[in-house]
Amino acid sequence: MCGIIGFSGNKRAPARLLMEGLKRLEYRGYDSAGIAWQLRAKLRVRKRAGKVDELWDELPEEVMLRAGIAHTRWATHGSPSDANAHPHTDGPERIALVHNGVIDNFRSLKADLEKRGHVFRSETDTEVLAHLISEHCNGSLEEAVRTALRLVEGTYGIAVMSADEPGKIVATRRGSPLIVGVGDEGSFVASDAVAMAGRADEVVNLEDGDLAVLIGDEHRILRLAGGENHQAIWSALDLPPTVADKQGYPHYMLKEIMEQPDALEDCFRGRIQRDSGTAKLGGLQMEPRDFLQIDRVRLLGCGTSYMSSCVGARMITDLARIETTAEYAPEYRYSNPIVDRNMLFFGVSQSGETADTIMAMREVQRKGGRVMGIVNRVASTIARETGAGIYIHAGFEYAVASTKTMLNTMMALLLFALLVGRMRDLSLARGRELIEEVEQLPEKIRQLLVLRGDFREAARHFADSHNFYFMGRGYSFPIAMEGALKLKEIAYVHAEGYSAAEMKHGPIALIDESFASVFVIPPDSVFSRTFTNLQEVRARKGPVLSITCGDQRTEELADYSDQVIVLPETDEILTPFLTTVAVQLFAYEFAELRGCPIDQPKNLAKSVTVE
Length: 611
Ligand code: AGP
Known about the structure:
It is a single chain. By secondary structure, the chain is α/β, with parallel strands linked by helices. It folds into 3 domains: 238 residues, Aminohydrolase, N-terminal nucleophile (Ntn) domain (Glutamine Phosphoribosylpyrophosphate, subunit 1, domain 1); 195 residues, 3-Layer(aba) Sandwich (Rossmann fold), CATH 3.40.50.10490; 142 residues, Rossmann fold (3-Layer(aba) Sandwich), CATH 3.40.50.10490. The protein contains 19 helices and 26 strands. The site of 2-deoxy-2-amino glucitol-6-phosphate (AGP) has 15 residues, from helix 9. 2-deoxy-2-amino glucitol-6-phosphate binds next to helix 9.
């Protein structure tokens, strides 16, 4: 999952235009960065390990370019080094290329090219593409790309330039996202439309096998296999240029944590029907009778999208009485899944570009399964490949660590559970009761966010702990897993999420005064059992942070906890919307205390578009 951007201008333009776009793609990877541009009949390349800003600082002030390509990397093959940074060139530096994806057969291709005298300067799979295109470059660049890619196995989103064809950029994709945009200054190609926000007026999402040829604002969308793509659908780009802006917060993550009340309202606004105690989800494109035949639901996701799916699976099972499970997408894909006409599948992904999730969905589709998407990014690959589903309307999420998109994904799944539940046994009274509680959630989250100081105090209290268990039962078990993921992701602290019931089956062996536990323990139907587990930890001198809702049980908890943080109260099914924010804040304050690069944690990227 790297970020690539290309620009071909109607006239020469400052390199800043490319670098600003590249900066907005840093959420996709930031191990190294590079830029190539055409200058007279030559290509210039600057690239280095480190972030975009460091590269930018190195560029000569006056770089003006007619066409250029740039790249920010998340390393797959080869360490984050200057030599492995993109763009890559062929030997004579007549071809320059940036790539997002994984070339599966690069070793055999590289060996063949070395036999023909090609000398490689990096460990990457990508460099092979530059040499391969150069090897076949005896006509137009697009023909060389077509010929070369016939030999390639794997995934790619590439942008290529040739010193022999000034101003031309050729771009094509298989499995990695690419968007072409056109504006007054010329044409763009990028991994994400956010890179061209404020500069492109119209965009088109390339599909696998599309090939774009850009020269200034002239653009052709062809097919890699030959011919034109007459189906390319252009649309207005509706992203404001200031989409990447911290608005005074120290980190995007904190900004996005604080946005959650408003973002959650954006998700359910216009979708709840108080009188009939149900929800309205037009994007599903299913008639009520279509739901009656559904007797199993599968939610496929990764990372935080998997955690929100675990919560959603409980909600759908509870409210709609449909057997529903959450599945780790890559595991499900290779499990030879059972698929039949009475099943409904959702790909759950904020980016809509996670390769593991997409490939699992395609496996289900190959078996004839009905697959929809629950995504944040409009026109993302999952949204386009399913054509139906639920947009979570969380707004752009810049921080690598997912926060508001988790709450909104859970809300989308709750609305689905309400809709289908009310077609079945869920009573009108219960439907209305849940809707009333849902409408109070944003305010309750605002009240929770005021408790930030309690989480900072907890982070200080546990600052010397190097290992954590996060524990919960029922609706709190997925939140325990999410809390552990967040602490690992942004504070680099080892943490594991468990069902509290599991403690006695092994994990408790590690508990002592150095091994802290965070209990997500609202006063719900499993409180007494979870409380017993908490006492078992305490009996072995384990430090404990308890996170609960309401103050009915705080005295009991206080007797067995180093600290108790009390969130507002809500319905058991809705506690995840509050406890999730709590574990986000704990992880954030912990990471802040440790001075971690919270928005761009090491080794991570926001959208994992490689398997
Ligand atoms: C969560 O904080 C991480 N950013 C990561 O686990 C993420 O949830 C996962 O990669 C799935 O991303 P998606 O929702 O875009 O599919």
